[in-house]
Structures
1.
Amino acid sequence: MKKVFPKDFLWGAAASAPQTEGASTIDGKAPTIWDHWFETEPERFWGEIGPAETSRFYEMYPEEIDNMKKINMNSYRTSISWARLLPDGKTVNPKAKDFYNRVIDKQLAEGIEPLMNLFHFDMPMLMQEKGGWESREVVEAYQFYAETCFELFGDRVKKWFTFNEPIVVVECGYLYQFHYPCVVDMKRAVQVAFNTALASAKAIKSYHEAKLDGQIGIILNLTPSYPRSEDKEDVAAANLVDLLFNRSFLDPAVKGTYPQELIDFIQAKDLMPTYGESDLTCIAENTIDILGVNYYQPRRIQKRETPVDPNEAIMPEHFYENYEWPERVMNPHRGWEIYPKGIYDIAVNIKENYGNIPWYISENGMGVEGEEKFLKDGMIQDDYRIEFVGDHLSYLHQAIEEGANCFGYHMWTFADCWSWLNTYKNRYGYYQVDLADKAARHVKKSGLWMSQVMKENTLE
Ligand code: BGP
């Protein structure tokens, strides 16, 4: 049956400045934590390509945007690099201003709406040295950066996002050692989470005060957390995971308040962050207009069964365990669960508990390691990705039919891009990037298939 999507639905793909631009040492850009880490500890990374190169969007953007148009995208979500735009934290780098102007203007000329995010894990090293998200000075510096972006580009960019997946910065940077600064400390992690939510609210305040003709929001990776059973303790464990990893940002962003159960938990564990009353007012008064949802996989949770060593420093997983749902379908090429219904459950949650705020899928996608093996007749035959996107779109369509206020779908990603510790291990794009051939692009089967869906606004 044909599934027609709403009029003016945004069809696109998502990426970020640090994962696509490259050119990280030229034209005045200052280093980020990723540049620093790749230089000082390259052994942590898969492969030899670092953030200085990536897929060369900085130089290839005109061709790249032409390719977007070829597959009928009408929107593209990426980010601005703080370290490129304000290398010393204060002064606009004219070359960066010029670059983003050219990208935005080219997108608009091709009918591709720019959805612009301000922070995608790419803390400038200068700001990290001041304490990163633990520091109030950095919160203020970020607000200045946001204001600068609104002033320079706010006449043409109508959809802004303050952060991509802020909980990932908390988890990977301050609990699990996947991102610099590699801290393992739950109290510091809570402070980082609070300061990020505050920084987001401050940027939203500045945006609304500037009275620009557009909307602003935040991008969150929502992970529906399903309990193993109806057993009270399994349900409580899954609820706690939902509180810690979803509602810790979703509630302040949409409702302007933190869930009382989360405050109780944080207080009971002596993890309260430092804050002032005016911070809470700022969060309460500056909620989002629109929400970006990144969805890859759910969490399957059960009560904690293995005892915790009392001498061990507190960590979230002391209060729950992940379990392997016997019916789960795994992506054999990346190791993540594939559960398309999760997108529907997220939509229902937003409708029932978050006032049906306008939202869109800002990322959803399927990573594949060693994707070259699917190359045949000059094209990656990624039927698995077609199935993946089709199944997710089916559930999304059903949710929209039932009243979900979803205005777009963006796959991760447009052209295979660089990724954090994995660099180019997992490929995600509608376009294949051939690194051996100056990052040449070749459309994949999924890109061609999707070009029809986007053109017709219909899933067949
Ligand atoms: C999201 C991030 C993206 C991207 C994606 C795929 O969490 O917002 O930046 O990297 O995940 O993940 P990975 O590249 O680790 O496979």
2.
Amino acid sequence: DAVATTPPMDQARARLREVFGFDDFRGVQPQVVARVLAGQSTLAVMPTGAGKSLTYQLPATMLDGTCVVVSPLIALMHDQLRSARANGIAAATLTSADADWRETIEAFRAGELDLLYVAPERASQQGFRELLGQARIALFAIDEAHCVSEWGHDFRPDYRLLRPLMDAFPDVPRLALTATADAHTRADILAQLGIPDDGLIVAGFDRPNIRYAIRHRDNPVRQIADLMRAEQGPGIVYAPTRAKVEALAEKLAAASGRPVLPYHAGLDPAVRAGNQAAFVESEDMVIVATIAFGMGIDKPDVRFVAHAGVPKSIEAYYQETGRAGRDGDPAQAVMLWGADDFARARQRLSEVPEDRRTGERIRLDALAGLVETPGCRRAVLLRHFGEEPPDQCGNCDNCLEAPGVTDATELAQKLLSAAYRTGQSFGFGHLQKVLTGVEDDRVVQRGHDRLSVFGIVAADEARLLQPLARALQARGALVATEHGGLQLGGEAKAILKGERRFEIVVPPPRERSRRRGGGG
Ligand code: ADP
Ligand code: ZN
């Protein structure tokens, strides 16, 4: 690699050792650093933990002038600041939370800073542009750059103001960084931030030491306690709400006998910080947390990440599971899902502003695809990030034990018809009774025993109704209303008309009762 051995790169390697104490670059770091040192604008897509900060911190110590870093979260900024200063880098933050802003501005103007961290809101302040004009700027680094795109999952309008601000300094190169960008979002980031197409550098996303598994949520406490028995090392369990975090932490502690602590934004800040610190130091603790947990924590030996409900998107899933096994040793990622997770997510879609709804729906469908696939989980993940992985990874649930798949198109037509003919206002339980011919009071009172769909599902097929309903809901062909009734949506019509086949993964023939004793 010619670029990697040019004199600036030799110097960069020397700096890497002196300033950061690392023996060598990792992954695409050298390509990114080489571009930055050559003054070329770049978008680096690197997974969490790949070492994005180094790609601007290192050049910042070599280039003449200050590297201005745009970062969306003050808490993250302060973490970065601490670690930069610990390495002896002259760094400061300019945020509403800083009392020492006068000194910071003075040091910035005097050219004494290598790094200046600012929030994107700064870009909208006229005074900030003037301030930049009074200093010498070596580089604009834009962290979490997907925030500039409406295609990204975390659009922040202030990011749109960065472009005009940076355009006022045409000679200063730009380095946009993100861990989470599908092909669409990437193209958008390049366009929005004025980075040339050939400035895109994408790191490999594969985390081969993580074993992925996605299961239906039958009994989350037992399922996660089982995982905790198999993996004695530190683990993170994500739960969707504060109340669920609290409840799950308590039950898991009781079920496993292991140290388990909760973490969520509603805890007293001192307790929360204490729990985080205890987890970071521990070799066997499990922390049950909302997604607020994990950003900016650096614990390499996390042995498992469990999701007690579906994450927000594939990007979020990748990022959250990516906190497992950063040391490279085997680790597990286990997601437990239920149809109600998707029902809730699809309900929320209706509250999303019109212009963003399509993007959100595509994201949700992609997640449903990952959950429902009978194929390799890793392949679905990596394809999502634009890679071309092999069909089988050998280290996910479906590769290790291929699930049975069955064409459930006809059964789906029966279930959808039942929902339709009963007025799209009944839940699964009622539809199941109608289809299997149960004449209970409610069925008879409503005259549902006289419908053509009454009793048309045979006993041997009835077992598939529940997983089918889940799959239809995950896919959006059945949509639960607030009152629990199931309505037709999305692909339902195409399935009813026979224009689309519908395959589902067949569940194992009833979880066998767990073997007793056995002594491992
Ligand atoms: P990201 O922002 O991409 O999630 P970070 O910048 O926080 O990742 O880096 C993750 C961890 O990797 C940090 O502990 C960092 O010090 C470490 N790291 C970064 N680059 C290297 C390297 N070349 N060699 C060893 N460790 C590294
Ligand atoms: Zn696989």
